[in-house]
Design a protein that fits this description.
195 residues; 47% helix
């Protein structure tokens, strides 16, 4: 006797289809969340004395460098606190009493930073002297741009920030746009000097 498939009602088909979609959604989002955490821990080589290990994607980030703040903002990363300072119009949202609370570039507010409990602190240029003390509060990296290798330093920082915040593709795209502008300026400068 041959086996016959049961005849399903429309309601039973809808229920089975619903279960199938639920399983598919769980598999897709499960894979996505595993993939998004696959980059951690990260060991960051930076301008500081020793590498820094970042165990997971930083959620509370404190920034003491305007160039880094600009890049992080372009990558759509939320910044918890920044050093007080003068910000260009497009970064003016950070010049508020709830964001500009980390002290100054030259004198971080260590007590406030301990209260914030950041996952990552980023210094550069003027604030790099505080690296050792800040490292006692949270993982701290120095992304000072090297004046002798300016363009490669900027590229490295953009791509590194993309890795840290799990935004590699967005960082790559950002770098390509920035590099295009740099090349255009270099050509204009060369024409100006020759002409």
């Amino acid at each position: 006797m041959a086996y016959q498939l049961p005849i399903l009602t429309q309601k039973e088909i809808v229920i089975i289809y619903g279960h199938f979609l639920n399983i598919l959604i769980i598999l897709v989002f499960g894979f996505y969340s595993v993939a998004s955490f696959a980059n951690y821990p990260l060991t960051i080589e930076h301008a500081g004395k020793k590498p820094v290990v970042i165990k997971q994607k930083p959620k509370k980030v404190v920034v003491f460098d305007l160039g880094v703040l600009d890049t992080i903002t372009a990558l759509d990363v939320e910044v918890t606190a920044v050093a007080k300072g003068v910000f260009p119009d497009y970064l003016a949202g950070y010049n508020t009493s709830d964001k500009a609370i980390a002290g100054s570039l030259f004198k971080p507010d260590y007590a406030k930073l301990k209260d914030i409990k950041p996952d990552l602190i980023i210094v550069g240029g003027r604030s790099r002297k505080a690296l050792d003390k800040l490292s006692g509060i949270a993982p701290t990296i120095d992304l000072t741009v090297n004046a002798d290798t300016f363009v490669p330093s900027v590229k490295r920082n953009v791509l590194l920030l993309g890795s840290i915040f799990d935004k590699k593709q967005q960082a790559k795209s950002l770098w390509e746009k920035l590099n295009s502008k740099i090349l255009t300026l270099q050509v204009k400068q060369k024409v100006k000097v020759q002409g």
